Amino acid sequence: MLGAMFREGAALPPNSGPQGSNYYFIDRDGKAFRHILNFLRLGCLDLPRGYGETALLRAEADFYQIQPLLEALRELEVTQGTEVITAALLHADVDATPRMVHFSARRGPHHYELSAARVDTFRANIFCTDPTCLGVLRTRFGVAEGEGEGSPHFRLEWAPCPEGLPEVEYRRLGLQQLWVVGEAGVKREVVGTSGFLEEVLQVALEHGFRLDSVFPDPEDLLNSRSLRFVRH
Questions:
Q1: Which residue from 125, 133, 169, 197 has the fewest beta carbons nearer than 10 Å?
Q2: Average pLDDT, the chain
Q3: Residue 133 contacts by C-beta under 8 Å, 6 or more apart in sequence?
């Protein structure tokens, strides 16, 4: 199809651009065309990890009548055992509850003072219809195997240890921190809402999701409490 469009003598007049330049406008999906061009350049199909628009790319390849690309897409689906799942939903929300904790702090051999520290407890919910993405999120946040498996939803609860609160008091309250496992098995602590949602955002983008809505302020992603992602 592309060859027929631009073959000498084809009835496809160019559009006039600035400074006497000409250009052609093709009314098709621009994002999918990137992968079509790469296939024509390289001769092989190289899609990003978690690519979720295989059906759209197949439709574009059919429009342009690029048979080798159609065959490569069919082979991709066969090697994965089934047709690539495209449509999926991912929703994550987190709520923080502050409270004051009072405790006795030892200042000397026989000297104790009544002290207080603010503890923020975070409760998060994650819902995802893509089992692969959900499994990555469970692993990243250290959810135990077998806990809630088979369900598209899991919950997390954590409370960072505030400065000034003794470790023994922190443990006595039954609190726990939230750690994620990054590259090379390096662990890092998730301190608050923004850190948690940043981890979810990273996994979502890696699996082909796009951000659909932000609550409460769509213009303030870093201070949001809820994120919704979709993949078509």
A1: 125
A2: 85
A3: 50, 88, 90, 203, 204, 207, 209
